[in-house]
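[Automated response] Your request has been received and processed.

Submitted sequence:
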Amino acid sequence: MALSVISLLCLVGAIVFGFVRKTNVGLVSLGLALVLGTIGGMSAGDIYKGFPYKLFLTLMGTMLFFALLQENGTLEKVSQLMTGLCGKKKFLIPIIIYVVSFVLSAAGPGAISVQTVMVLFAVPLGIHAGINPILMGAMAILGAVGGTASPIALTGIIVEDLLADMGYSGHGMQIFLGVTVANFVCAVVTYIVFKGWKQGMAEDEAETEKEKVRFTSKQIISVIALLVMVVAVVGFSYDVGLVCLTLSLVLIILNAADEKKSVKMIPWNTLILIAGVSVLMNITKTLGGIDLLADLLASLMTARTAAPIIGLTGGIMSWFSSANGVVFPTLIPAVPSIAEQVGGSSILQMVVAIVCSATVAGISPLSTGGSLVLASYSQEKNPDPKEESSIFIRLFALSFGCVATVFVLTLVGLLSFLG
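Generated structure:
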C-alpha cells in the first residue's frame, strides 16, 4: 500500500512541479524514475521498459515528415486551399474534421490509423485558419474513436469477440449506437467549450481566399507523398511512423526540402516530455499506484453507479495503457460478475461506458492522439516550456472532461435505451 501511494504522489508531483517551475515535465519524470524505481526495488531494465519506443518512433517519423512539408511551404499551401473551400464559414471546419474522422474510422480502419492522419492534418490547418488547434485535434480524435466501435472496425471487433466469449454475442450495433451517442455529446460539449462557432472570425478574409493557390514542383512532390501516406496508413493499415520515415527519405533524396532545417524543426522537447512521463507512469503502474486508484473507485459502486464508475475506471486506465490491448480485455470480462454482485445493472450499459470512456480518454497527451496534437502544435508554433506545459495540461484536462462527460451521461441514464 505504501509503495502504491508513494508512486501515485510522485506522478502527480512531477506534473505539478514541472508546470509550476516551468520545467519540462518529461525531464522531471525521468529524474524521479531512478529514485522511485529504486524505492520499489526495480532494476534499470525494468525502468527502461516504460520507455514508449513505438510511440517515440511514430512521433519522430511523422514529425520529420511534416517538418519537411512545413519547411518547403507545402503545409501552408494545403491549409490555404482547404480554408478557401470553406470561405467565411470557418466554424464548419472542426465539424467537418469530426464527421470525416468518424466516417473513415467506422468504415474499417479504426481509430489508430485515422486519428493519426486526421490530427496531422487538423492541427496545422487550425493554426493557419485561426482556429484553436486543440479544438481541431480533439475533434479529429473524437471522430476517430467514435467510429472505431463500428462492428467492422478494430474496437468493435475486439469488444464483440470479448462479449461472445462471455456468451453475450450479437450486440455489436447496440454498442456502436451507444458509443456514437455518447461520443457525439462529448464532441458537442468540446465544440461549445472552445466556442467553435466563433473560431476564425477575427481574420481578414476579404481577398486572401480569392487568391489562387499555386504549388511549386517540390511542393507537388510533397503533396504526392502526403497522399501516398494517407492511402498507405488508412487504406492498407501500414504503420504510420515507418511510412513517414520512408517517405521522408524519398523527399530528402529528391531534394524536395532542406533536411537540416527540417530536423531542427522537430519538437524534441515535446518528445522528451511524452517519453519521460510515460516512463514514470509505467513505474507507478508497476508499483500499484494505478490499481490503487481503480480500487478506490470500485469500492464506491452501487447498482446505480456501477456503470458510471466502471466507465470512469476504464477512462483512467486508458490514460496509462492501451484501450484495445489492456483496458477492454481487463474490464469487460469482469462486467457480468460486477453486475451480479451489485444487482440491477445493465451489462450492455457497463460495456458501453467502458468503451466510451476508454476511447475519449485518447485526447490525453500521453496517448497517441493527444501526443500528436501536442507535437504538431509544438512543431508549428515552437512554444516555450511554459506554454508547452500549459498545452499538455489543457489536453489532459480536456481528456478528463470527456471522461467525466461520459460518467454524467451514464449516471443520468442517457444510455438506458440499451436495456
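Summary generated for your ticket: The first helix runs from residue 2 to 20. Confidence is low (pLDDT under 50) at residues 203-209.
If you did not submit this request, please reply to this message.
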